[in-house]
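User: hey, got a sec? need histidine kinase folded
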Amino acid sequence: MPDRPDYAALTRGQIAVLDRINAGEAGLPVLQQIVRLAQETLGGRGAGFAEYSADHGRIIAATGACTAATGRRVDRADTRLRDGRTLLIPLDSLNDEFAKQVEGGDVHRMLGARCEVGETIVGSLHVYFGDRDDEPGPEHHAVLELLAGYVGRLYAARDGLPVHSGEQARRQEKRDLWVAVTSHELRTPVTVIKGYADTLSNHWDTLGDVGRHEAVRIINTRAGELARLVDRLLSAASEDGDVGASPAGPFDLAEALRAAVEELPADLRRRIVLDNLPGELPKAYGERDSIATILTELATNAEKHSPPGSMVELCAAADEETLRFRLSDRGVGIRPEHVEQAFERYWQAEGGDRRHHPGAGLGLYLVRRLVERQHGWVSLRPREGGGTTAEVRLPRA
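Assistant: Yep! Here you go:
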């Protein structure tokens, strides 16, 4: 780390940020540029911004050594930032899973600054330094405080940023829509199941083996849809309760993914390309039974926003701390300002085939809850060349 901040980079970066704001841009793309500028100007190994909700924070923008943590739930750091706007914290003093992870990547200290709108702390901006880096001086603190002020301005504009952009009336409108759509979703599989059950009961002898097998297959498929919908509803009904929790332990992630693909509806299963799914991976630690639900929700979301017949690629890999798998489609893509909103209850993006996939806005919300219950995290991002990539990370056993 240089003795002084790179003021030339800071000036260029400020001009670029202001140009984007003056051009009407806002939200996560501009926030990501500020985070990148903080790392570049201060010479850090990585940088990130944690947005705060009532009881926790979440990394919604990150660069360098922290990039993989995008989407990671973390503890709020504002209790440590009460006495000043910036604070240098040794990572080994934090009881936080993310801090332990980046420490393993030769990152040992964090310079943090709180981001405020009036008297409300909306998040904190952090730059991470290695053990061999010099300790940040007063000028480094001042620059980070300046950049944190830019983040506060973005939140004051209330445009395109996740947690603090909603209003009560808008939430009520979403709930009303959710009730209407969920009623439809519940009614559809129940009606189909009852219809085919009646057919089997009343016409068993005349259907023949082919007809009976087809009826049973449809009942099984619709029952699976109904079970997943019930999981969503239970998840949405309680912020804190464990939904369908199963015992956690070591498991083979690649094998669990292959089994989960086999459980997908036939039309969706044919679209999954097992691209770079290794036969040998370290064991993951978590709830193996949850992988089928997580994969189904992510694959259904990819199908909903992709052209008919287009492929969805599934791959997996491991690093020193986590195992990850990704689903990548070539659909309409996700706007950068929506990569966090997509995980909110009842939120639905524009577009997609709503005739065949009406959706109640609960699938991705359920995915995030299932993954975070296992001390992992999930994120969405636009895919280079078009489409969306969903990434799930779970701890290594």
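Quick note: DSSP finds nine helices and 13 strands in the chain. Let me know if you need anything else on histidine kinase.
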